Amino acid sequence: MSPRSARLARLSRSVTFSACHRLHSSCLSHSESLSDEENLKLFGKCNNANGHGHNYKVVVTVRGEIDPVSGMVMNLTDLKEFMQEAIMEPLDHKNLDKDVPYFSEVVSTTENVAVFIWDNLQKLLPQGMLYKVEVQETEQNVVVYKGEETIVK
């Protein structure tokens, strides 16, 4: 019997959470903040003073070798628990701007929600296993984040 080469696969799991937020840049440092008029112009109806809500769908994809014994990249029960801790507990049924400390300094756009989830999952998953976080704010608005960073200027 010849040894089999390692096979790589990607595994995805989704969750849905409900949260509200207000797109407004006053949470940033004073020098980077926008006026109320600039916020309204930039964010439109999403700048509503009372906020608005979404039913976010998050798809998390991990990648790795298929274990020859279990036949799995990762146990789905473990992934489910990691997603519960990294996504559902901090975000579900929350006001992102008021209940999640991260968003006291970062505008709660879907892009930044994806980064928040990525960072939380990175702390829990084995190194190098997280491949992609996809956050669907609506059926039409989807953000995909793969951990990319930009060079600080």
UniProtKB/TrEMBL annotation:
Q: What GO terms fall under cellular component here?
A: mitochondrion
Pathway in which the depicted protein is active: Cofactor biosynthesis; tetrahydrobiopterin biosynthesis; tetrahydrobiopterin from 7,8-dihydroneopterin triphosphate: step 1/3
Which InterPro entries does the entry mention? 6-PTP_synth/QueD (IPR007115), 6-PTP_synth/QueD_sf (IPR038418), PTPS_Cys_AS (IPR022470), PTPS_His_AS (IPR022469)
What cofactor does its activity depend on? Zn(2+)
- Cite a single GO BP annotation: tetrahydrobiopterin biosynthetic process
UniProt entry keywords in alphabetical sequence: Lyase, Metal-binding, Tetrahydrobiopterin biosynthesis, Zinc
Any Pfam family hit: PTPS
Top class in the EC scheme: lyase
Q: Does the keyword Nuclease apply?
A: no
> What Gene Ontology molecular function terms does this protein carry?
6-pyruvoyltetrahydropterin synthase activity; metal ion binding
Q: Per the UniProt record, which EC number(s) apply here?
A: 4.2.3.12
Give the record's family classification.
Belongs to the PTPS family.
Described by its record, this protein's role is as follows:
Involved in the biosynthesis of tetrahydrobiopterin, an essential cofactor of aromatic amino acid hydroxylases. Catalyzes the transformation of 7,8-dihydroneopterin triphosphate into 6-pyruvoyl tetrahydropterin.
Q: What is this protein called?
A: 6-pyruvoyl tetrahydrobiopterin synthase
Give the originating organism: Catharus fuscescens
Q: Gene name?
A: Pts
